[in-house]
Amino acid sequence: MATQETSAQKLEAVKNAMIKQGDVVKALKAAKTAKEQVQPEVDKLLALKEQFKQLSLLDDGAGSKFDRASLESLLLKRFFYAPSFEIYGGIAGLYDYGPPGCALQNNILSLWRQHFILEEDMLEVECTNLTPEAVLKTSGHVERFADYMVKDTVTGDIFRADHLVKQVLGQRIEDDKKVQSGNAPKPAKGQAKLEPLAAETRSEYELILETLDNYVGDELRKLIRRLDIRAPSTNNEVTDPVLFNLMFETQIGPTGQFKGYLRPETAQGHFLNFKRLYDYNTGQVPFASASVGKSFRNEISPRQGLLRVREFTMAEIEHYVDPNGKKHSRFNEVRDLVVPLYSADAQQAAAGPTRMSIGDAVEKGIINNETLGYFVARIYLFLTRIGIDPARLRLRQHMSNEMAHYACDCWDAEIESSYGWIECVGCADRSAFDLTAHTKKTGEKLVVREALPEPLIEDKWTLEVNKKTFGPAFKKDAKAVQGFLDSMKIDEAWDEVKLQELKEQLAAGSGKTSITGTDGKTYELTDNLVTIEKKTIKSFIREYIPSVIEPSFGIGRILYQLLEHAYYRREGDDEARHVLRFPACVAPIKTLVVPISHSGDFNPFIKQIVTGLRRSNIANKVDDSGSSIGKRYARNDELGTPFAVTVDFQTVQDRTVTLRERDSTKQIREKIPVILDIVKDLVEEKTTWKEVEARFPAFVSQEV
Amino acid sequence: MATQETSAQKLEAVKNAMIKQGDVVKALKAAKTAKEQVQPEVDKLLALKEQFKQLSLLDDGAGSKFDRASLESLLLKRFFYAPSFEIYGGIAGLYDYGPPGCALQNNILSLWRQHFILEEDMLEVECTNLTPEAVLKTSGHVERFADYMVKDTVTGDIFRADHLVKQVLGQRIEDDKKVQSGNAPKPAKGQAKLEPLAAETRSEYELILETLDNYVGDELRKLIRRLDIRAPSTNNEVTDPVLFNLMFETQIGPTGQFKGYLRPETAQGHFLNFKRLYDYNTGQVPFASASVGKSFRNEISPRQGLLRVREFTMAEIEHYVDPNGKKHSRFNEVRDLVVPLYSADAQQAAAGPTRMSIGDAVEKGIINNETLGYFVARIYLFLTRIGIDPARLRLRQHMSNEMAHYACDCWDAEIESSYGWIECVGCADRSAFDLTAHTKKTGEKLVVREALPEPLIEDKWTLEVNKKTFGPAFKKDAKAVQGFLDSMKIDEAWDEVKLQELKEQLAAGSGKTSITGTDGKTYELTDNLVTIEKKTIKSFIREYIPSVIEPSFGIGRILYQLLEHAYYRREGDDEARHVLRFPACVAPIKTLVVPISHSGDFNPFIKQIVTGLRRSNIANKVDDSGSSIGKRYARNDELGTPFAVTVDFQTVQDRTVTLRERDSTKQIREKIPVILDIVKDLVEEKTTWKEVEARFPAFVSQEV
């Protein structure tokens, strides 16, 4: 059952309910009903109004109320992050995190480690950013980790080819909309009047935009030429698209002859250490490795703030599992979790996401296997825990044409923001692709060895060298010929197809055939030198390259989307106030400590509070600047600080302080140790502000 | 008062005490004294024996008992760290951290954040590794961050020049020692017999080795030629030394025209963000920024494992302070801390370090100022807290010739290991060097503005343009001339020397002089166009570039030294066991959970324990492999796991489990919830194992 509901639809529903409830209240009041009877209905109305306000702030559809510019100015002003090297003019796609951004990221990562590594006994690794070329050749990155770029033939400005096509066609469709509705702007001097597009042209453009990923190589070049795609600001022609590798290249060591790259993902480091990790885990499978670190992509045109950058923090998990049994021992814990799944089939049918339990999804084959399902669920739980709005989170399956060739299933956690639905976590079944590639390249077996419950008996083609005749026949060249024979092995086992071919060649040549030794010379091999035959082989060990399930988190992207979800504006007495409603677990500062004025009498109390908070490892900040108490609260609402403890003149009398909560702006007043205990429980999520409000009387601040 | 005591002296003292105590016990036993009277003396003897054993393991002087090879093999086997890209042959100077190394590093960093950032409200930043060339030109790294290298003229092998000189002269001295003592080995075929060195030659070599840092440029070239320094393994001549820049270079963006480097330190990122940080801190000074991240140095010859690598984690603090008042508000908290200080004077006098209170050191001017002293103390406290042996930790002042030209004082925290005394933390007063350089380069004022208690009145040279005549005189060239005038400003204030020079030139030319405009053309300036005179200026704001005190931590170095300090061997029943005695706060795994056998009856208890530990965020590991319980304990001693909870058949009967401590190998036995509480208190350092042993009866394990 699909329950796709857009923000706009939700907003509409709440608005209708609000109007209806307003009528109820009006009617009661008109009938002069007793106040106690009217009040509950008034409360309902207020709740609906609040809900409406929140939804309108969140709404990001047409006529959006979400004001990105105002959030961005807040983020810059409070130094969540800022362009790197700003005083040197900045560099696109590089950002520095200031104190609140840093703390927010640290808190997200610390919860990530708790939620994944500690909870599942994952093996954390930290591998280097510098990576030699050979490794990234094997992984396919040297050849394939590239985007197409084109240049303005006159100015030399560079564009990512697909972005350019998207921009130009998008503009043409926009223009057409205006022309069709009679709102076309007057053409600038010297420019032609905008003409409407033919209906078939417009649908072709729309189709191309949907399937743009399919255009590569010469197809892309033809597309650019056929549609006459030009540089937008100059209208100059562009060059043919060429591949640009997205890895940063450097030289390792002083010789200048050892090429390396900055890693484009942390995954390869895990794979190269597979053997050590497997041993560390005393040979038990399944197990997972995990890593938090930087990755680098030399984007052609960085854009969208933190969403497409050149250097970013990733958190990656590689879970190694028997390809023949992708069950998960803790699957029961997530079986009943209902999540919004957007399957490939639903996308094909142009339907929306469906809310479904993970158990059902795996049972129906929508999610390929239990382990993948388990991680999809764990990712969902993590994201909602740190404050991502579940209403703007979905799990989208890759379409078969966008899936990497080695993957058998892939789900992205997509989060909606003012930039649309953005992939923030990928969860792919990478199968045995990487471990196989590195095994083949290095000869180092990245395998699991398992004692078989009973021996396996198989008939296999084998080759045996006749030691008596082989050495004397080739003398000092024996090694080169032996090398040729060894080349017919895969992972130390004979390649049976090649053995049979060789046997056939020998038969065809009446017991003789030419082969090329590893020294490049040609030798004659005769059938008295080797015996090729089918033998019955008994194995006691099963050896296999494990499959890898990879949940991969883009931390910067998650952080930005969280900022959008956390942001709202509150109308204040004088001006609109900006608030970030982080859950306490990720809030950069958990508690603000404010003396109401500059009196020295407050110092001992401030010290007592700060020491108490530090003892509980609660990040806090004293704001004893000269600003008004209201300004100081507002400043910390902007940082998303959930709680504030205020020391005032009453404190000096009776050792009580007030505790204010960010979103309700309500306060209570108690003795310092009681307040410290409450804050600790709130931060550790052992109680909620609602519970606190129920337990303690509200305090109406004098706000000096 | 110097209390320098070498490890060897300490060992000797303990040995003597041990022999003496042995005699006491022997005498008592010979006299058939009652057992209760002998026992305390026996205990004393055992304690001395243990102390002796520990000291001999630690001893790293001549005839060292510390076995580095065996520690290294343990670190590799248990995957603390391993060479990166090992299956591709590895790359010198790059290491990956495995699970225990990673956890150890995470714990060190988490304590670092607690000890510095949280405790002092520092502003954490995270800046990018990629850095554009312009920034590193200003900081001086493009020009000066380099080492001299030479090449073997035949093989092309590359050496760091100073390392090569050190190695060759060291070898000559070693050889001479052997010759002098008559132990010279017979010369290999075709090689000349080793000849003794002249006494003056040997002392010259020794002097050069001590002052090697002083040889740069042509001096270094002359030294290599004069002493005929050759490549050791080939005996070939080497090329003249050339400077090799140690930064990794790359291209940012697709144009191939934007040069960047991987940062060699995190400090520059702090400085570039100074203005935002200063604003974030609402203009209050002093304050500090802090950062944890990677830095990169393309070492010519990486060596000594983690001590000299190409990619490493740094934790850096930049503390901004008024150059005229380097007091510290929390100095009192460290004033009485006694630390081993090795001042420049003591080094000059070839004396040893002196134990002295921080207060005394600052008062006597040994440490330049309170802020520097405060951080030196905090660094000492941090290092000892994470488990660095205070007996092998000293604070060494830079000699005036090794100090950077901008620094007015610098202290290194040096830790002793089998590699000698190694700088692990630097604590420098960088003065205003970097902020001044970036201000000059970018025109962005990285300054503090302070309201003066009363206005400052000063006489200053100023220049004023005569607006009536200036414009008409130069017309469209006015801008170029104005540019020339502006070039006589520093930070928007007139350069008084230059103004006076210009005034003199005008006077010398009878009111006329030629100047060069910013367009490169020559113009005539006359004294009716500008007025240069001394004026009385009243300022209400003091503007200054703050001084920077920089504690800078090499995390990999600290981690390795900690591993050496934590390592010891315990003689077991069968074979020597390796132990890492980490304090619980840094131990990778805090608690091992072991079922005594594979019985399914144990599962609910294992689950209860693990869930309880997780709830308290205590990193734990279940080892239910088939190995004997002794083997499993041993395996976790190697990981430095301080506690082990064992579930056995008695658990099924009475819900009790045993708790074992790593170093004493003693156990107690209690109900599960009691044990969980004890473990929590131990890990959080709220109790000690000694206290636990005193409170609960010892349990003698059956070790099935």
Automatic annotation (TrEMBL), chains A, B:
<protein>
    <recommendedName>
        <fullName>glycine--tRNA ligase</fullName>
        <ecNumber>6.1.1.14</ecNumber>
    </recommendedName>
</protein>
<keyword id="KW-0547">Nucleotide-binding</keyword>
<dbReference type="GO" id="GO:0005524">
    <property type="term" value="F:ATP binding"/>
</dbReference>
<dbReference type="GO" id="GO:0070150">
    <property type="term" value="P:mitochondrial glycyl-tRNA aminoacylation"/>
</dbReference>
<dbReference type="InterPro" id="IPR006195">
    <property type="entry name" value="aa-tRNA-synth_II"/>
</dbReference>
<comment type="subunit">
    <text>Homodimer.</text>
</comment>
<dbReference type="InterPro" id="IPR036621">
    <property type="entry name" value="Anticodon-bd_dom_sf"/>
</dbReference>
<comment type="similarity">
    <text>Belongs to the class-II aminoacyl-tRNA synthetase family.</text>
</comment>
<feature type="domain" description="Aminoacyl-transfer RNA synthetases class-II family profile">
    <location>
        <begin position="208"/>
        <end position="595"/>
    </location>
</feature>
<dbReference type="InterPro" id="IPR033731">
    <property type="entry name" value="GlyRS-like_core"/>
</dbReference>
<keyword id="KW-0030">Aminoacyl-tRNA synthetase</keyword>
<dbReference type="InterPro" id="IPR000738">
    <property type="entry name" value="WHEP-TRS_dom"/>
</dbReference>
<keyword id="KW-0648">Protein biosynthesis</keyword>
<dbReference type="InterPro" id="IPR002314">
    <property type="entry name" value="aa-tRNA-synt_IIb"/>
</dbReference>
<dbReference type="Pfam" id="PF00587">
    <property type="entry name" value="tRNA-synt_2b"/>
</dbReference>
<dbReference type="InterPro" id="IPR004154">
    <property type="entry name" value="Anticodon-bd"/>
</dbReference>
<keyword id="KW-0963">Cytoplasm</keyword>
<dbReference type="GO" id="GO:0005739">
    <property type="term" value="C:mitochondrion"/>
</dbReference>
<dbReference type="GO" id="GO:0004820">
    <property type="term" value="F:glycine-tRNA ligase activity"/>
</dbReference>
<dbReference type="InterPro" id="IPR045864">
    <property type="entry name" value="aa-tRNA-synth_II/BPL/LPL"/>
</dbReference>
<keyword id="KW-0067">ATP-binding</keyword>
<dbReference type="Pfam" id="PF00458">
    <property type="entry name" value="WHEP-TRS"/>
</dbReference>
<feature type="region of interest" description="Disordered">
    <location>
        <begin position="176"/>
        <end position="195"/>
    </location>
</feature>
<dbReference type="InterPro" id="IPR009068">
    <property type="entry name" value="uS15_NS1_RNA-bd_sf"/>
</dbReference>
<dbReference type="InterPro" id="IPR027031">
    <property type="entry name" value="Gly-tRNA_synthase/POLG2"/>
</dbReference>
<dbReference type="Pfam" id="PF03129">
    <property type="entry name" value="HGTP_anticodon"/>
</dbReference>
<keyword id="KW-0808">Transferase</keyword>
<dbReference type="InterPro" id="IPR002315">
    <property type="entry name" value="tRNA-synt_gly"/>
</dbReference>
<feature type="domain" description="WHEP-TRS">
    <location>
        <begin position="10"/>
        <end position="66"/>
    </location>
</feature>
<keyword id="KW-0436">Ligase</keyword>
<dbReference type="GO" id="GO:0016740">
    <property type="term" value="F:transferase activity"/>
</dbReference>
